[in-house]
UniProtKB/TrEMBL annotation:
This is Putative pre-16S rRNA nuclease. Could be a nuclease involved in processing of the 5'-end of pre-16S rRNA. SUPFAM superfamilies: Ribonuclease H-like (SSF53098). The keyword NAD does not apply.
């Protein structure tokens, strides 16, 4: 997870939510707890797409999770996340981050990139 500053200009890493495979209710509970703690009412959720733009199984899971969040009065913006993990890994490699440490932070780095690209678009960038 990533969060922005109060002005919605800069994204920063927050945490990684871990949950048992396919236990989206547990994931939802953890995410809602974090959102409440930080008084967040709007979420940018990565939408995995195939390179041709099609939405596969993982994308459908994201869409279902977005609906679960919306049932709790959270506004959700689904955001194309293609190549964010690749880009995040490239940045970490350029920063000389070890393979072991990259594995631990890659998801957070990708979350920051997803949120930052959304913020940049909202603020007139791109």
């Amino acid at each position: 997870m990533a969060i922005s500053d109060p002005l919605g200009m800069i994204a920063r890493s927050l945490t990684t939510v871990r949950f048992p495979a396919d236990n989206y209710k547990q994931c939802l509970a953890e995410v809602l707890k974090i959102l409440e703690e930080h008084k967040v009412k709007t979420v940018v959720l990565g939408l995995p797409k195939h390179m041709n733009g099609d939405i596969g199984v993982r994308g459908q899971i994201s869409q279902k999770f977005a609906k679960m969040l919306e049932e709790h009065d959270i506004t959700v913006h689904l955001w194309d996340e293609r190549l964010t993990t690749v880009s995040a890994e490239r940045i970490l490699i350029q920063g000389n981050v070890s393979r072991k440490k990259r594995k631990k932070v890659i998801d957070q780095m990708a979350a920051v990139q997803i949120l930052q690209s959304y913020l940049d678009r909202q603020n007139g960038g791109f």
